[in-house]
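Anyone? Bumping this.
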Amino acid sequence: MTKKILDIQNLKREFKMGEEIVRALKGISFSVDEGEFITIMGASGSGKTTLLNILGCLDKPTEGVYLLDGVNIGKLSRNELAKIRNEKIGFVFQSYNLLPRTSAIENVELPLLYNPAVSKSEREKRALVSLEAVKLSDRKDHLPNQMSGGQQQRVAIARALINHPVMILADEATGNLDTKTSYEIMALIQELNQQGKTIVFVTHEPDIASFSSRTITLRDGRIIRDARNENIRSAKKALAELPVSEEIEG
Amino acid sequence: MKLTNLLQIAIRALQRNKLRALLTMLGIIIGVAAVIAMVAIGQGSKQSIQAQLSSMGSNMITVRPYSNVTVGGGARLDQSGLQTLTLNDIKAIQSESKFINEVSPAVSARGQVINGNKNWPTQIMGVSPDYLKIRDWSLKEGVSFNNENIAAAAKVCLVGQTIVNNLFNPGEDPVGKIIRFNKIPFTIIGVLSAKGENAFGSDQDDIILAPYTTVQQRILAIPYIQNIYAASTSESTTDSAVAELTNILRKSHKLKPSDDDDFLIRTMSELINTFSSTSQLLTVLLTAIAAISLVIGGIGIMNIMYVSVTERTKEIGLRMSIGARGIDILMQFLIEAIVISIIGGIIGVLLGIGASQLISIFLKWPTLISVSSIVISFAVCGITGIFFGYYPAVKASRLDPIEALHYE
């Protein structure tokens, strides 16, 4: 039996807005096995972002159970949540969120600086391995403003990989990129998935969802569809099929 | 969280914004440099005043006659006309006093001193050998006169450096030479070491010292003495010595309890206190001004740290999302503030030392760089950094990671 990375039961999240109570999530249940690549889709207002924040341990559910790698997140303190984020989750954001005027390798090292168990030499070694995994080891000393959007996002993915997370959580990670670069990033993510990484990818683009093995669709705080993707597209192939004229980047 | 990691995080963050860090430091740099330089000027002037006063003999007590009665139509007599101090007073002091080590009578006269074809107007002062100890005055060459010279009213003298300069050719040895003061020949037996000007600008080396008996009998022809110089056992016993001296003199002058003193006692410590408190006030004022600029520097840090927290909200959100706890963020900003103020402090200390040196070189003001002012301004810097960095750091640490991440 495969290991359950995510186990979510009847998850609810309510916000108080003055007198009103806004129910962003109205009871969501699903689980994700190790090695799955799922996309979470939904229009804005569907509760997608709220779910993402909870999955990323940035927020806690009002009700329900969220087990991440066997740990019940609902019971943890702020500092314990920070430790979980540091050790179990690799974030990839839409706007990359690299530190400006900081070299690629230093950006990649960043999560390990908050982990006292990792020594300086190991940190540097692992940062290099991570950069190699995203094929950017030759750019390790480049600053973010010396790199293209796709390269910056690959640095961000390297940063997400460095702490050997149980799950990579991507939030519209291709939202700022053109089609070709998006496909390049998706190819990289598919490759990581094939190496065994569990990937949760939040997006509103069906095109991107077609690269994943399973899609969960939200509407109005509920899951309206949870379907396995029988016909997974290969991002590498899609990249090769792109018309030459769309090649903007060199 | 390891401290080395936190330091690395803070220093990297500062390196990303060197110009802003430097501008933030500027307030601290100026503040610390001002403190160091101001205290150096204050301490320097205080020390030079004290050194000058000490050169006059810091535990010296002076007694001069003072008119305690009015004569005729109410006029008081000038001290030169008073003849109340006598050698009996000296004997009484020598035998009865506990707090006075040395005592010397003094009589003086002005006149022209001649050596060959050179002459010089000066003052001759008749004293006992103790006078040199009271004034803390040493001989450059030769010997002092002794009690036998006093008893014999010998025509021997010690000369000050100004006399030597004016009566002798450079390189000429004055010891053993005979000079004439108001036509009376004196053999020079010693040369006083140079004391320079006193605090009031008069030349202390423009003097001839001779046995008081010689001056009394051969120059002035008077039996009384004009002044008494005494030295208390130490600076701290000066007040007791003054009280004791007052009693001895009142007894010796047979004053009734209702009579006023017919003498006036002055001590150097009064002068020292007056000057010290003046320069102390100066130091306090200068330090206060400098401290204010340090506080303003601190507020500058707080201001920039605030702007920095707002500007870096997204960075804080990212750091939190990859595992930074609130305390890590707080420490990062606190360490940034402390590093800024400590580096500012180091630059400020160097600048302050440099400024003090420039002041003493170009303005010729005496300066004294005190270690305590460096230590204190350093400590203040650190505290300033913590104090003014803390609130912005707390603000940063309390940010909600979700909001911070989506802050634009």
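Late reply, but here is one note on the structure posted above: The radius of gyration of chain A is 18 Å.
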